[in-house]
Amino acid sequence: MTENKNRATAAAILPLVGGAGNITSIAHCMTRLRLGLRDRTLVQDEKLAALPAVMGVVEDASTYQIVLGPGTVARVTPEFETLVEAARTASPTPTPTPTPIPLTADELAAQGAALKARQKARNATPVKLFLRKIANIFVPLIPALIGCGIIAGFNGLLVNLGWLPAVTPALAAIATGFMALIAVFVGLNTSKEFGGTPILGGAVAAIIVFPGVAKVDAFGQPLSPGQGGVLGALGAAVLAVYVEKWCRRWIPQSLDVLVTPTLTVLISGLVTVFGLMFLAGEVSTAIGDFADWLLSTGGAAAGFVLGGLFLPLVMLGLHQALIPIHTTLIEQQGFTVLLPILAMAGAGQVGAAAAVYLRLPRNTSVRRTIKSALPAGFLGVGEPLIYGVSLPLGRPFITACVGGAFGGGLVGLFNQLGGSVGSTAIGPSGWALFPLLSGNETMTVMIAVYAAGLITGYVAGFLITYFFGFSKQLLADFNVDTADPAPTRPVTGAPAEEPVSARV
User: Fold this and answer.
1) Is 90 exceeded by the pLDDT of residue 308?
2) Which domains does the chain have, with CATH numbers?
3) Cα(403)–Cα(467) distance, integer angstroms
4) Active site includes 29?
């Protein structure tokens, strides 16, 4: 039954994006089906957004992204790929469906060129492209971080209760094995993302976690296995890519298969052992010390700022710079203290959406969108509320951010008072973060603090939006009867998805 439902969803989406002939690429992230399109004008946005399974649509410079939600997207994507392949086999020549609005060839070309230029201008900046590469390195690791994090939390509970002592060591090994080798996976993904041979990047990164490095002295002191962590692995793999490309350019083809991998691993490995591990270790330590200092000395203020500015960072695509920081903190301390604070941004969105629901009693379209999107919002999937409700309205997006700031301030205050509430993985937020909570307090205390932060975000987002989120003109424009669902306009220029990014 579930398989038929997923196939039906894929079948409903395909004609609305221009058919199989209009698809150039298919991929998916944690919540979005990401499509490359030949002709953007063939997409029927209104009908697509009205599908029951579609939570929203987002565009960036290179892909058209359909928000389906976690779990669903992983099941719909293979069905979609099967339908596209079947259609191409039946009709090898691309036959896109006609444009709903009749346009001349010149008008169509001009429209497409303007859209493409606008998207590139907004998203293809060097900083955003670089940050997107960094995100692409870490995003594939999120499922393992989540799974191992939940197992670690469950194992900790069993240990505290004294239950199943014969099983807990095995669970500890399962939960920590991935983190012990995460540098290798970072090296593989980095090399792949920067255009090198993945296995060479992994081989160089593996040096960092090899126990034998303890016998090596660098800068006057012995190295420690794992020193430099994911940042060292990132730097080592990037260096390996450049060495490999240099070798491919200058080494004769007859010797390439032997010389290139040897020189790549040797040169990059020596630089890693005698330089990068030490330097990356110092940077990693500084990141951990700074996070601890920031929250211990100004936790309430820092939490307020982080909780309030996170969603604007998401809209600018700058949130992706936080992913290596989260991963470094998890590697060092076992949890990241920043994620529970940033997750409060989603609580502000939920509270704001509830206020919009009450302030627009006559707009059945907006209220219907909110009712369908709120359950996902409580679970930390924020795209439907952001792109379907608060951001298009304007002012409610700002008041939602303020609501998240109050929630972040409360969690930050707890850290300032000496406690800590963190997450053992990145990606989930909202209620979905409860199983991943960790810190220096009992689980009961951490759950209470995080829940108090969520409630504060809900209430603050609701009250501020209810009283200050609407001007008279905004109410006059939107508090009107709507016989049919209002079209959900795609948000152009939105950043590519990252687990810990828009999913708040």
Assistant:
1) yes
2) 2-124 (3.30.1360.60), 136-291 (no CATH), 311-478 (no CATH)
3) 12
4) yes
